[in-house]
Design a protein that fits this description.
heterodimer; A: mainly alpha; ABC transporter involved in vitamin B12 uptake, BtuC; two-stranded antiparallel sheet; 17 helices; B: alpha/beta; Rossmann fold; four-stranded antiparallel β-sheet; globular
């Protein structure tokens, strides 16, 4: 009996292998066809400036080989394993109550604790100068995008209004801080709310004309608004110095008590008797943006449980039903635009203070697209998902700079940074295939009677503009 | 049976409501009222304009003409046709549901009910600002709102599913949830658009129970559109029957059920019977022309247009006497009605052409009998309407001097329909209009539902000219084409 069962299984296994082999061959052919011109042949110039054809058969072989091996492994082992698991799960008709792991349950708390101990951790392991890159390029950079993502989440994720010009408010915040700080010498702590308010005003100004628009039309107008702001910054040279940008933006101080300027008498190293280093300022900025991002998260969570937050989500679900319930949709949309813009304004003024230099180059459409991609990848409306997406997208592109070991494989003239956008797109396609509604597709209800059940993504709508 | 005020105090009055979409008259001069504490049903065949009436009442459409008055418990009156839609729910306390259910599918059942209490919670949370800083006022209001939601969930039998997404509920439960959500806005009038559509008998019974509970628990009056006659006949106190945008019957369920016009509208009349009817009414010419192609382009008789098809029906005919609202000639009720009228006419020994003429001009209004009934009802709380209205315009006459009225349509801006309305007010001559003062103009505008149009088109000035030079020169209005154009233009201006 046992043999009778195992014999077909053996047969299935061998047919699996041969099938996988066949698939691998086809894949290899397709890969060869695709890459023979792109990789195998390369046009170049010789010393006499003549066009020559460089042949790279070895590299081509590597590409095709990787594709074939990958396909073979997938077809022969991964796919049957997945099918078996699915069958096993289907067989267990009664869905077992999956005990959530400790890590999954307390993910948010653990993540916040990790973020707070991150700088000391890096400083102790890599030393003062070694930690600079990790705190600044990774920590601060990612947290800025987390904050922008959470801000845009209010507009796109909650209210369902597709905004492609979000970077405009970021620019308003950055320029507000730089100009006011340079001309009036006001401190960051006064200008932070001012920049937020100015950005919120611009949010309302953008909101008014686009109230009637939906979907694609709304996206186009917001895109245009973003470009208008950038063009104004470029061309209004009397105020913004155009493409030269504004430099010498004052640094942030710790409420005026501790300065991060070496020449000041209350410079941090002098106060605490520490060795001189630029990393203190970066660590301070890291904690500053971390707090700002957490405030953004706190306010978003609070707002969602307020009537206005529920009205935003209701607006995303069905605008006509909203109006039939006596909700003023005009005000609701405007508050969404203003609140989202305000957080971008905060982030913008932080950005200006961190860089010490702003120019219109920093506020191109690509920035809006990246922030929007973070929100969509993360799962619209989910703060955790957006934070994870920001880490993946921004951290991922930053980490490419660190992958110099790839030169060993692909030769000395291989620069991984050049493939940044390619991998960026690839990652997005993969995530959207694997999780079409983003990393966290389900929605947390804002109120409950008995138990909090997440709302599956198949019910929520993306909004129609 | 129930202890509720049936003292016939109207909660909603719809007066002379018209809604035009281009050439199509979805609602044509409709008047009816819903009384406080009652369930008023609006029924009629498909395409009768029921949902359009709802959309006008709840502000989703702005009516072309007419007045919709909502009277709240405290006695405040709201003119719904002038309010933006969300004000209607917030201030006038009229809530509605939709024919194709519009729930917030991605939000839980409880959240749906909390969204409905938006305005109350907004105030409690100090427009978000106080609530954001955790003031206790909002916490209390929030707990209260959950209690309100629980109350309605209990009534709608959805309490067990409160934490499930609304999109996950079965169809009947979604219908009940939509009603519960509308009730959370604390309405005084609840407008239900086909609440029983797509429900099985069991769910339909549950719906009836919910509606009765709604009425008992909150004293909310209900206006409903429904096709399911078992629901309508069982729960409604008052039924208004529409056909092609006009009212053909109005009364309690028993009287509506036995009304021949309603039966005709729903069940239709045999072709032979139509022929008989037309002969009876005296439209031999039409009967003769039955074999031939119908003349769709001109002066189609209301009953004849039954054969002309729906497109010709919507054409506004501009001949000397009327921009005939032949609307929907297919009205079978009209045929029955015409028979009644013809009989009455015969009894009064009227001559045939006159009877026909009258029919032509009253085509804009619904059946004569129904109209008389309804206008009598509207007038009930006031004095006899006609007399009071006539008194409100200075110099009104009971009938034209010398038995012959001036051709008021010569005044630019007055069409045949308005002429008729003015006649009803005792205005027959140019000099009467010429003598209007500002107050009269205002009163006339209110009645004709013309905001500022009388002043804009300088009716008084025109009337003065015409009164002075009666019959001296042919008015440009004689040119029918132009008249139609000017009318269309002014209609467009108003709609804007």
């Amino acid at each position: 009996m046992a043999e009778a069962v195992s014999a077909p299984r053996m047969e299935a296994r061998s047919s699996n292998i041969t099938g996988a082999f066949r698939e691998a061959v086809y894949t290899g052919l397709v890969a060869l066809g695709m890459f023979v011109l792109l990789v195998g042949l390369k046009t170049d110039q010789n010393i006499r400036n003549e066009l020559i054809l460089v042949q790279r058969w070895g590299l081509l072989a590597v590409f095709v080989g990787v594709a074939m091996v990958g396909r073979f492994v997938f077809a022969a082992f991964v796919r049957p394993a997945l099918a078996k698991r699915r069958a096993a799960r289907a067989a267990a008709a009664v869905p077992e109550i999956v005990q959530e792991s400790f890590l999954k349950k307390n993910f948010n708390l653990l993540a916040i604790i990790f973020l707070f101990i991150f700088p000391p951790l890096v400083v102790t392991t890599l030393g003062l100068q070694g930690s600079l890159k990790w705190v600044d390029n990774f920590g601060i950079q990612i947290l800025i995008y987390v904050m922008l993502g959470w801000g845009l989440n209010i507009v796109v994720g909650l209210a369902g209004l597709l905004d492609l010009g979000y970077v405009a408010f970021y620019a308003v915040g950055a320029y507000s801080y730089s100009l006011l700080a340079i001309h009036f010498g006001w401190s960051f702590w006064i200008l932070l709310p001012v920049a937020g308010l100015l950005a919120a005003c611009w949010g309302v100004i953008l909101g008014f004309p686009v109230l009637r628009l939906r979907g694609d039309y709304l996206a186009i107008v917001t895109l245009a608004f973003g470009e208008i702001i950038r063009l104004v910054l470029i061309n209004w040279t009397a105020v913004t110095k155009g493409t030269f940008g504004i430099s010498g933006i004052p640094k942030v101080t710790f409420f005026g008590l501790i300065s991060f300027d070496v020449s000041d008498p209350n410079y941090i190293a002098k106060v605490f008797d520490l060795p001189m280093s630029g990393v203190y300022y970066k660590i301070f900025l890291y904690y500053l943006i971390l707090c700002m991002a957490l405030v953004t998260a706190f306010v978003s969570i609070r707002l969602r449980r307020m009537p206005v937050g529920r009205a935003w989500e209701a607006l995303r679900e069905d605008e006509i039903a909203c109006r039939s319930l006596g909700i003023n949709t005009t005000n609701t949309k405007l508050t969404a635009f203003a609140t989202g813009a305000m957080f971008a304004g905060f982030a913008g003024s932080f950005f200006a203070a961190r860089q010490g230099f702003v120019s219109p180059e920093s506020f191109v459409f690509l920035e809006s697209a990246v922030v929007l991609a973070i929100v969509v990848l993360g799962g619209m409306g989910s703060l955790t998902g957006i934070a994870v997406a920001a880490v993946v997208m921004i951290g991922g592109t930053e980490i490419l700079r660190e992958l110099s070991f790839l030169k060993v494989i692909f030769g000395p003239d291989f620069t991984p940074e050049l493939y940044r956008m390619l991998l960026f797109g690839l990652a997005m396609v993969i995530v959207m295939v694997w999780k079409p509604r983003g990393f966290v597709g389900s929605r947390e209800p804002t109120a409950f009677l008995k138990e909090k059940k997440a709302v599956s993504a198949s019910f929520t709508k993306e909004g129609h503009g | 049976m129930l202890d509720r005020p049936t003292s016939a105090s109207p909660i909603l009055q719809v007066e002379r409501l018209s809604m035009r979409f281009g050439g199509l008259r979805a609602i044509d001069d409709l008047s009816f009222e819903a009384r406080r504490g009652e369930i008023t049903a609006l029924i009629g065949p498909n395409g009768a304009g029921k949902t359009t009436v709802f959309n006008c009442i709840t502000g989703f459409y702005k009516p072309t003409e007419g007045m919709i008055t909502m009277t709240r418990r405290g006695g405040e009156r709201y003119l719904l046709e002038r309010m933006p839609d969300f004000h209607i729910t917030r201030d006038a306390k009229v809530a509605r549901t939709f024919q194709n259910i519009r729930l917030f599918a991605g939000m839980t059942v409880l959240e749906n009910l909390l969204v409905a209490q938006h305005n109350k919670l907004m105030r409690a949370s100090g427009f978000t600002i106080l609530g954001l800083f955790g003031f206790s006022g909002y916490k209390k209001a929030s707990a209260e709102s959950i209690e309100v939601a629980k109350f309605w969930l209990d009534k709608a039998d959805l309490i067990d599913r409160a934490d499930d997404p609304a999109g996950d509920l079965p169809y009947g439960a979604q219908r009940r949830l939509e009603i519960a959500r509308a009730m959370c806005t604390e309405p005084e009038l609840l407008c239900l658009d086909e609440p029983a559509a797509g429900l099985n008998p069991h769910e339909s019974a549950a719906l009836n129970m919910l509606l009765n509970e709604v009425r008992e628990a909150s004293g909310t009056s209900i206006l409903l559109i429904e096709h399911d006659m078992s629901v309508v006949m069982e729960i409604s106190d008052h039924i208004v029957v529409l056909e092609y945008g006009q009212k053909i019957s109005d009364g309690d369920p028993a009287s509506v059920k036995s009304d021949p016009k309603v039966i005709a509208a729903y069940l239709g009349v045999d072709d032979e019977e139509i022929e008989d009817l037309l002969t009876e009414v005296g439209e031999e010419s039409v009967v003769e022309g039955l074999d031939a192609e119908p003349d769709a382009s001109h002066n189609v008789e209301p009953s004849a247009s039954f054969f002309a098809g729906p497109i010709a029906d919507t054409i506004a005919h501009s001949d000397e006497e009327e921009h005939i609202a032949v609307s929907p000639g297919a009205s079978r009720a009209r045929i029955v009605e015409a028979r009644e009228k013809a009989q009455a006419a015969a009894a009064r020994k009227r001559t045939k052409p006159e009877a026909r003429d009258k029919k032509g001009t009253t085509a804009a209004a619904a059946g004569a009998a129904a109209k008389a009934r309804s206008s009598g009802k509207i007038a009930a709380p006031e004095k006899p309407a006609q007399a009071e209205r006539a008194a409100s315009l200075s110099g009104a006459l009971v009938k034209p001097r010398g038995g012959k009225a001036d051709d008021l349509t010569r005044i630019k801006g007055i069409g045949a329909a308005n002429e008729k309305k003015l006649h009803a007010h005792g205005i027959f001559h140019f000099d009467q209009i010429a003598a209007w003062k500002a107050a009269d103009v205002k009163a006339a505008e209110a009645y004709l539902a013309f905001d500022g149009r009388i002043k804009r088109e300088e009716w008084v000035k025109q009337a003065r000219l015409l009164a002075r030079s009666k019959e001296t020169e042919p008015s440009p209005r004689a040119d029918a084409g132009k008249a139609a154009a000017s009318r269309a233009a002014s209609a467009k201006g108003r709609r804007k």
